[in-house]
Amino acid sequence: MLKRWHRFCNAHCTMRNARRCGGVRYDAEKIGLLGPEYKAIPVDAWGRTGADFVAYAPGLATLPTPLVTLDAGALNSNAAALTGWAGRVGVDLAPHGKTTMAPSLWRAQLDDGAWGITVATPWQLAVALSEGVPCVLAAYPVLVPAVLRRLGQPRSARVLVWADGVDVVEAMAPHVAGAAQPIDVLVDFGASGGRTGARTIEAAVATARAVAATPGLRLAGVAGYEGVLAHDASAESLATIRAYLEQLAALHTALGDLYDGEAIVTAGGSAYFDLVADVLAPLHDPPATRVVVRAGAYLAHDDGFYRGISPSNRASGPGFRAALHGWVRVISRPEPGLALADGGKRDLPFDEGLPEVQAVRRSGAGPAEAVTGAEVTALADQHTFVRLTGDAENLRVGDVLRLGLSHPCTTFDKWGLLPVLDDAHAPEPVVVDLVRTVFG
């Protein structure tokens, strides 16, 4: 079996080598022997290393379904777009690492100029520190005693944690007393109906004073998250976001006398970071004040929720394109108007909208053809229900559908290893790298 794979890949590599994308950037060279623990890897490649697998430039047709892939060109384009935008508007970036939980993508973001990486749990913080991330924004109150004690020990990485009330500071205090290195704390400012965060400027100021007065803690700035306050790009929603950000800026100004060193002002999920820059970028003046945007979904983008709400759709935002695609094979045509494909909730995201059918590769090979009249109506654990009308009725068992996906945050966590294609829209996409995720 491996000999047949070797002969095929040698021939395939000769034909497709010119299409490779500038060398391996992510994890292929670091992954050992491939096996059944990686559902994206073909059976014929088990027993090969990641580097060997990619070296033969396997085509998409050799990969199993169901499958989710990344597009190298889109990843690079999205990274360059946000980095360029940040430079133009005058802010720094600390992309949210929980979106991908892929350390190689974090490293690429840092190499591209990101100031730091954001995380959302103590475990994610531990992963980031173990991977050598030099600056980590831990966007939550750290209350696990062992973690607080560890953060108070000498370390080279800078870590900033959140606190939104005097009670949070009091809960931290016993575990940081006598810390060899003070822990940087950002006051988390929220809004009524939002998530965490002090609900008034008065409560936030009281929190800041408690931080400043607590041995082992250091007041390092203010933080907020605007994304939970709106869910579309209507004028009303944008006005709500802007008003909130103006309050965050006012809080920063009110705390000026309490800061010890450079102050960090951070906000900016993936939906409204253009407004964050519009309101907060005037404060950016390192080393006195540093404004940091935490958008994370931009790198992979999507064909659903973020396609509809991202600043890509507004004149003030950079342009992104979807780097994630699903690939499912039609396995049953049990009745007219219905096809069942081999991917489901265990493989594809569904919390921010169902996948959309974009194209079909007949019998799983050859150029993708646009398809109309095919709509995903439901996902079971391992099945995709596709309603067919018009020309889509000609879908056959064995055809492979390319799916647009919605919400990268719940896509990456279903895949321990994702193939990176040179171009998902090419007649025969080629695997040029692999990305490993770490989701515990």
UniProtKB/TrEMBL annotation:
Keyword Transit peptide: no
InterPro entries assigned to the protein according to its UniProt record, in alphabetical order: Ala_racemase_N (IPR001608), D-amino_acid_metab_enzyme (IPR051466), D-ser_dehydrat-like_dom (IPR026956), D-ser_dehydrat-like_sf (IPR042208), PLP-binding_barrel (IPR029066)
Domain D-serine dehydratase-like: 323-422
Pfam family, one: D-ser_dehydrat
Keywords: Lyase
GO molecular function: lyase activity
Sequence similarity: Belongs to the DSD1 family.
Protein name: Amino acid deaminase
Organism this protein belongs to: Cryptosporangium phraense
